[in-house]
Amino acid sequence: MNRIGTARALSLACYLGMIAFGMAWAIRLGELPRNQVSITLLVLVAPLLIPLRGILHGRNRAMIWGSLAALIPLLHGGTIGWSADWPARGWGWLEFGLAVVYIVTSSYFIRWRVLTPQ
């Protein structure tokens, strides 16, 4: 697999991981009250679902919009990782790491695909 394919696979895995983590956080990991689960899902997961179809197809604009949507998990994970107690702190840093890796790998994917001669 070349570097473009590796960057796409890694960015896709991290993006799907952010979606799965947002759902897991809202339902089980975050220890939220029952009446806050739906609003947490709307805030953490819904923005990630908007560009999902284009990301699955590897479209440049969708990858860029996905990077913008990934800023929400980046901020949420960084805040939880910095301020919470264990084990929530570890989960926060995991979410932060998924968002950072997605943003970096999707940027390289777009750059390498645009600059590579056909």
Largest sheet: none
Q: Average pLDDT, to the nearest integer?
A: 95
- Number of helices, where a helix is a run of at least 4 consecutive DSSP H or I residues: 7
Fraction of helical residues = over 70%
Computed Rg: 15 Å
Strand content: under 5%
Write the SSE topology.
Elements: H1 3-29, H2 37-44, H3 46-49, H4 52-57, H5 60-69, H6 71-83, H7 88-115
Helix pairs in contact: 1-2, 1-7, 5-7, 6-7
What can you tell me about this protein's structure?
The chain is mainly alpha-helical and 118 residues long. The protein has one domain (3-115). The chain is built from 7 helices and no strands. The longest helix is centred in the C-terminal third of the chain and has 28 residues, at 88-115. The radius of gyration is 15 Å and the shape is elongated. The two termini are 17 Å apart. The mean pLDDT is 95.
Give the tags.
118 residues; mainly alpha; 7 helices; 0% strand
What is this structure, in a nutshell?
It contains seven helices and no strands. With 118 residues, it is mostly helical. Helix 1 (3-29) runs antiparallel to helix 2 (37-44), helix 1 (3-29) packs antiparallel against helix 7 (88-115) and helix 6 runs antiparallel to helix 7 (88-115).
